[in-house]
Structures are given as structure tokens and as C-alpha cells.
């Protein structure tokens, strides 16, 4: 099973938020419904890629009744439902979580700052270009001022 980042975001969007283990389980359920194999290592790599590309955001929000990191739809995602995904909320027992929007925004900003610093420090021009694009997506996704960080990236 080869899910694209927007498809992973679509699965997460069905629930509002999922832990990594829940998303892996959801992908396993989808694979079963589609009659294909789901390699857990490949699913984990796809999740990592979706986080890296800002399709998913990892959030630690202890007000959400869990100590686990939660995955939510990120600023560059256009969530799409893979075949059979609409049935997942009926198949999986995932608790409703009340995730604070401020925690999500802060997680994105902190992650972006960290990524920007590393890209500049490493002189990674490709990552800088990607992050410049992401900065505009973040602003469109939520009212977050990205001009200062974008200026630093532009200097590279």
C-alpha cells in the first residue's frame, strides 16, 4: 500500500487527530479493505515523509487527554480519502479528542523555525526553497505571520 501525503492527511482528517500508532492501524485496515499488503515500515516512512513535507503536523497537547503525540492535518495538505477510508470511523475505536488550535499553531511555528535554522545552517538551498513555499501555505492555513522567518530564508 502506497499512500500519498494528502491521502494520509485525509485519513487523519476523518478523525481530527490520530496518534502515529492509530494512523498505522488505519492504514492496515485500508490495506485489508483493498486486498493489498501494508508494510508497517513503508507506512511509517510515508508518515515521516508527510510530517517532513508539512502535510501532517505532530502536536504534543496534553489538554487533549493523551500523553502521546497527535498527528493533525498540516498547512500544505489537500486531504483526499483513499478508497475505503470513509468506513474507518466505524471500524476503529478512536476516542474523540479536543485538541487546542493554539497548540497546533505553536507546533507548526516551532517546527518551521527549527527547520529554517537547520536549512540555513546546512546551506541546504533545496530545503530553503521548500520552506519558503511552506511559509506561504502556513499563512494561508492560519493567521500566522511568517515574514521574519521568510526574510531570513530569502537571505540564503
Structural notes for this entry:
The protein has seven helices and three strands; from the N terminus they run αβααββαααα. It is globular, with a radius of gyration of 16 Å. α6 (125-141) packs antiparallel against α7. The protein folds into two domains: 5-91, Arc Repressor Mutant, subunit A (Orthogonal Bundle); 101-155, no CATH class. The protein is mainly alpha-helical and 156 residues long.
- Major sheet: order of its strands? 1-3-2
What is the averaged pLDDT score? 91
Instruction: Please report the total strand number as a whole number.
Output: 3
What Rg is obtained from the alpha carbons, in whole angstroms?
16 Å
Q: Given this structure, which CATH class of the largest domain is correct?
A: Mainly Alpha
Output the CATH topology of the largest domain: Arc Repressor Mutant, subunit A
Please report the distance between the alpha carbons of the first and last residues: 38 Å
**How much helix, percentage-wise, in residues?**
55-70%
Order of helices and strands: HEHHEEHHHH
